[in-house]
């Protein structure tokens, strides 16, 4: 189990990314637009730099939704490999079976 402070910090980042996502997308669109003037691009760069650092999606890290474990994360289920194994053995994950050959 990850420290609760780390889990809450990640949730705070997720909220921050969600609140600033639309504005960041607009600014990036202006920056990448070849027909935009240099002044518009400069203003877009400035306002992008003034945004909080944690508002960028790059700062997010995939974590297990149950334990908060950062490693061994399965994107399909949103949980770590350890929790995936435990829940699969208990039959809590529909459509998942233990393979055998």
Q: Can you summarize this structure?
A:
By secondary structure, this protein is mostly helical. It has helices at 4-32, 38-50, 81-90, and strands at residues 73-74, 79-80.
Please provide the ordered H/E string of secondary-structure elements: HHEEH
Cα-to-Cα separation, first versus last residue: 33 Å
Average pLDDT over all residues: 92
| Weakly predicted, low-confidence segments | none
Structural class: mainly alpha
How many DSSP H or I helices? Answer: 3
Task: Please compute the radius of gyration using only Cα atoms.
Answer: 20 Å
- Classify the helix fraction into a percent range: 40-55%
What is the strand tally?
Answer: 2
Query: What does the largest sheet look like?
Result: 2 strands, antiparallel
Strand content: under 5%
Strand order of the largest sheet: 1-2
Q: In the residues, how many domains can be counted?
A: 2
Shape: elongated
Care to describe what's here?
The protein is mainly α and 101 residues long. It has 2 domains: 1-60, no CATH class; 62-101, 30s Ribosomal Protein S14, Chain N (Irregular). It has helices at 4-32, 38-50, 81-90; strands spanning 73-74, 79-80. Strands 1-2 form a two-stranded antiparallel sheet. A hairpin with a 4-residue loop joins strand 1 and strand 2. Helix 1 (4-32) runs antiparallel to helix 2. The chain is elongated, with a radius of gyration of 20 Å. 7% of the residues are buried.
List the helices and strands and how they pair.
Elements lengths: L3 H29 L5 H13 L22 E2 L4 E2 H10 L11
Antiparallel strand pairs: 1-2
Notable characteristics:
2 domains, 2 strands, elongated, single chain, two-stranded antiparallel sheet, 30s Ribosomal Protein S14, Chain N, 3 helices, mainly alpha
